[in-house]
Amino acid sequence: MRLTPHPPVWTWDSESGGKWANINRPIAGATHEKVLPIGDQPLQLYSLGTPNGVKITVMLEELLALGKTGAAYDLHTIDIGEGEQFGSDFVKLNPNSKIPVLLDQSKTPAQSIFESCVILFYLAEKYDALLPEDAKDRTECMSWLFWQESSASFLGGGFGHFYKYAPHPMEYPINRYTMETKRQLDVLDRHLANREYMCAGDYSIADIAIWPWYGRLAMGELYDAAEFLDTASYTHVLRWAGAIQARAAVKKGLESAL
């Protein structure tokens, strides 16, 4: 039985959304006219230092470290706290109004790509890097890429929101999403027990996708929740996360995004 019955038809209460109430809304589309800056580099990245944003700056810095000069990019900050993702030009590039968005000016006409894991895959294919060539290994890599894409909403929109950002603490959702977050960490810990990287024995876009969420969470750099989640018990995740964080391109990509 519900303690508080819901109404027959839901009505939007714009004041009930906690920290992000000013930008959360049940409709799509632009709220204002805003021209996006465009630089001279082949790739234009419109992003912010969220886990999904960090994925792309890390990927681009890894490509540059591999000598892929075509991956040079201009980074433009989109302040989602101020609603810049609802500007007219940004919405044209991504109707879903989420960061990151990549604009590839090396193509005519320029091509926009949104959804962070799609951007990773696009860049890996474009520059033939950080994606296994063997069909079996590539499929495994894509499985983990999609695992991250489908799982992180429980971590960010679920656990992160109710643990860190909700207007007041609520026991049930915190318990529910803590359980799921710890289950996901256990999935990773078991998988990494006998592996250096996520798939095919080598560093790939699967690691780049998962690390900003689960690696940084385990290392206490996301939601200030390491003690609460007892992430010290996930020793294989921590070993993997530390190795990735030590990479020069990862450091540079993280610094650029934040």
UniProtKB/TrEMBL annotation:
Gene3D superfamilies (UniProt xref): 1.20.1050.10, Glutaredoxin
GST C-terminal domain location: 137-258
InterPro entries in the cross-refs: Glutathione-S-Trfase_C-like (IPR010987), Glutathione-S-Trfase_C_sf (IPR036282), Glutathione_S-Trfase (IPR040079), Glutathione_S-Trfase_N (IPR004045), Thioredoxin-like_sf (IPR036249)
Location of the GST N-terminal domain: 44-131
Superkingdom field: Bacteria
Stored PROSITE patterns: GST_CTER, GST_NTER
Pfam families: GST_C_2, GST_N
Protein name: Glutathione-dependent disulfide-bond oxidoreductase
